[in-house]
Protein: Iron chelate uptake ABC transporter solute-binding protein
Amino acid sequence: MKINKKILAVIISIMTIILLVGCTKTQEIKKDEAIKIVDSYNREISLEKPPERVVSLSPGATETIYALNSQNSLVGRSDYCDYPEEATKIESVGQITEPNIEKIAELNPDLVIASAHFSKELVDKIEALGIKVAVLYGEDSFDGAYKNIQDIALVLGKQEEGTKIVDGMKKKVEEVGNKVKDLKKPSVYYVVGFGKTDFTAGGNTFIGQIIDRAGGDNIAKEVDGWNYSKEVLMEKNPDIVVLSDKYDSKSGFTTGEGYKDLRAVKEGNVYELDDNMLSRQGPRQADGLEALAKIIHPEAFK
Structure:
C-alpha cells in the first residue's frame, strides 16, 4: 500500500510537470504570436510586437493613440493632427495626402498609420523604405469607428483599453438615443461650406446619420454626398443651422446674402460645434453626437 502511494505521488508529480510545461509553451506561443490586422486596402499587416515608434497621418488615429495612453510611441504626425493640444508638440511630417517622405524616413518609425485619404501610391513609396504602413479607416458609421479604434488598440497592444473606450462610446450613443427617440424632430441644416458653393452632409454621409441619431431631421437627407443647392436651402428654410466653430463661420453665414433671411438665423437658432468631433473617426464621435443632440434638443438634457 505504501508503495502504491509512492508510485501515485510520482505519477502526480510527473503529470503536474507535464501540465506546467504545456501551459508554459502555450503562453510563449501567445506571447510570440504576430499582431495581424487587415487594413482598408484589404492588406494583411503583420507586426512581431507593438510598434515603439509610430507616425500618424490620421487625426482620428492620433486622437485614438492619446486616448489609449500610447502617445509615448508617437514620433510624428500630420499637420492636421491637432488634438489633443499636446499632439501639436510632436514633429509634423506635412499634409495627410502629401507627407514629407524623407522626414518620415528620418524619424525611423516601426509603423505609419494613415487614413482613407492616403493613396496606394504613397503606401508603396513608404513601404519601399522598409517601413510598414497601415491604412485604417472603418466604414462611415459608429460600427466603423468602433472597429477602427479596436484595430489601433490591437496594433499598439492596448486591446483592453480599446474595449473600454468603445464600450464607453456605445453607452453614450445609447443614452443619447433614449433621450431623443420620442421627441419631435426639428429640421436641421449642417453647414460644411457656404458662399459661391454650398456644401452639407447628405443622407448617406456619417454626419447625416449622426444628425438623425441626435434627433434632427436633416433637410439634405435625400441628397448623396456633400454638394447642396442654395436655392433648395432657402426653400427648405430649416429650424436649426449648425456650423463649425472655426474660421468665424457663424458671423459670415448669418450676415451672408440669402442666408441671413433663413428662419434659423432670424430666430437665433444658428449654433457652432467643433466639427472635428463628428468628422474624425475616433473616440470623440460619441461626444460629438451628444453635443449635437444638446443643440437640437436642449430640453432632453436638463
